Amino acid sequence: MAQVGIFVGTVYGNALMVAEEAETILTEQGHQVKLFEEGTFESWQFYRHHIVLVITSTTGQGNLPDSIVPLFQAVKDQVGYQPELRYGIIALGDSSYEHFCGGGHTFDNLLQEQGAVRIGELLEIDAQEHPEPELIAGPWVEKWAGLIGD
Predict the structure, then answer these.
(1) What is the DSSP code (8-state) at residue 97?
(2) According to the model, what pLDDT value does residue 88 have?
(3) Which of 16, 2, 1, 24 is nearest to 87 (CA)?
(4) Are 146 and 28 in contact (CB under 8 A)?
(5) Chain-wide mean pLDDT for the chain?
(6) What is the bridge-based pairing of β-strands 123-126 and 117-118?
(7) Predicted model pTM
(8) Strand positions, DSSP E, 43-137
(9) Does residue 54 contact residue 22 with C-beta atoms inside 8 Å?
(10) Is the torsion defined by CA of 87, 48, 10, 34 positive or negative?
């Protein structure tokens, strides 16, 4: 089965809760999973040859949470082209703000620019509609797990 690195950007813990649920689902399906609350560039470099799942909330004006900004900057500044990367994105946000799910879209845009291949669609979870985001993410992760293969 696949090796999956889950990289989390969270402020209040919702993205981490979603990531822990994703870790459980992927592990139950036989994948080797490692969760990174504050992922390092070194861990990214390993998983870019496997599979990455980015789960991030959004802060302020559509920004990434502080916990994932150093990783984002390192990927942006040091990686360049990475067509071997296969990844998924779960973006958490609040639709009452102008830049809904901006953190997830920012990370997705960077990876697309770098030639990475997104598996499945980006999942947006709206805090206005879904106060328990893990309930929305669970079915998406189950489907996504089937798309990542070995």
Answers:
(1) S
(2) 98
(3) 2
(4) no
(5) 95
(6) unpaired
(7) 0.96
(8) 51-56, 86-93, 117-118, 123-126
(9) no
(10) positive
